[in-house]
């Protein structure tokens, strides 16, 4: 298992675009936004906090969305299309281990991305680290697992790698929209904010735990439910070849 994870990690590092967007882009975006003086000024729209403080949860959403909905479905669907999964099934190593390795690689990349984001935000802009680190970690893991389950579901249902990329892009755009990446959440109608609070990867719970408020158990429950439901359907409908 460790050998497979190590190999998949090396393959991940050979995709410069994915490394940049999933690992480095959130920090780069923070530096760009932080360079604008108005976004470093306390604003009533954010409870007298700065925009960059309130936007941290959306930057985490960016990482989770790229890994769970861009990388995972395309990689798994490509492996199936090229016969990699079928070849694994002829060896003592079950193909499911390859899927587990993909999720673990995503988890490693996500942790590195968030750690880099936290260090740079604290060092450069004086942004507080998550006030509730335990709940932030729980939300992060549930957010990662829920999007990974959806990504595997897309890979299971898509007939080929091209279709998997197209389907995943639609879900990716919705996650980014409701996660406040395309538009800050305070600009969205209350109804859309309420919907986005319950959708993976849990932007509201991420923001609450970062700013010092215990997340709503209902938000975490929905993430867990999506993980179980999407993961179960993906497992039952997955095709190895």
Automatic annotation (TrEMBL):
Membrane topology reported for the UniProt record: Multi-pass membrane protein
Keywords: Antibiotic resistance, Membrane, Transmembrane, Transmembrane helix
Keyword flag Nucleotide-binding: no
Coiled-coil stretches: none
Pfam family, one: ABC2_membrane
GO cellular component, one term: ATP-binding cassette (ABC) transporter complex
Official protein name in the record: ABC-2 type transport system permease protein
Gene Ontology biological-process entries: response to antibiotic
Keyword Transmembrane: yes
UniProt domain ABC-2 type transporter transmembrane: residue ranges: 5-195
Principal localisation: membrane
An example molecular function term from Gene Ontology annotations: ABC-type transporter activity
